Amino acid sequence: MNYFNYFTEIEDHFARRRGKHLLLSPMDWGLIASWRDSGVPLQVALRGIDIAMDGFLARKRRGTSRVNSLCYCHDSVMAEYAGYLESHVGESDAEAPAVPPGHEAGSEAPDEPGKREILGLISARILEIKALCAKQSFSGSTLEGIERVLARLEEIMRNLETEIRIDSEPIERDLGMIDELLVAELRGIVSPEEAAEWEKDAKKELRVYKKRLPAETYQKILDNFMRGKIHRKFNVGELSLFHL
């Protein structure tokens, strides 16, 4: 599964199947992230979307509106994934599907970001965080946390500058952990009133999801929504190679 094509392939496929392009909401992106983190292969997710959309179109009557949320496809995607897992029970490593060319550990797949792009993204985030520090006075544990974030990002840049071959997925995992630290520190200085207002807005947008999704998946999407709010408030982009 090409990690960096996962989101865009699903977005494009869903748009084609519904018959009209639709910009996915932050909630839909969170749902795709939950599929990815659960290990749902791309082709399984696309097949689940096809099944859900085929069912919708078969029942559709004249004047019926289009599907406006990827959440509509969640049950079908997870059913397909359950079938996929069942079909692979007992397989040995030798019987497992071969890794596609270009996806071997330590190699860059054609659509993955290169060294220059990754360094550029990390450098931009460092500048954004430093600009934030210049505008807003941090102190105590918050200042220490922000300084740890900067130190870890600068360390990743130093290591990358000496690397010849880049393995993007471990870098993405490292950036994800650093982003969690950054968000936790910034969330600590958001007023309780503003945070409560964000959560109220999130739950309002997530009403359609709550009845259809497992509690764990729903919470993950809610957390991603709040994370996005924090990034936008402090004008610091997310630490993720997906945004390249």
Describe it.
The two termini are 18 Å apart. Helix 3 (42-59) crosses helix 4 and helix 6 (140-161) packs antiparallel against helix 7 (168-187). 65% of the residues lie in helices and 0% in strands. It has 244 residues and is an all-alpha fold. It has 2 domains: 6-87, no CATH class; 115-243. The protein has helices at 6-18, 26-38, 42-59, 74-87, 115-135, 140-161, 168-187, 192-205, 207-210, 215-234. The longest helix has 22 residues, at 140-161. The protein contains 10 helices and no strands.
Main sheet summary:
none
User: Care to count the β-strands?
Assistant: 0
Could you tell me the strand content as a percent range? under 5%
Morphology call:
globular
Secondary-structure-derived class: mainly alpha
Order of helices and strands: HHHHHHHHHH
Which key features would you list for this structure?
244 residues, globular, mainly alpha, 2 domains
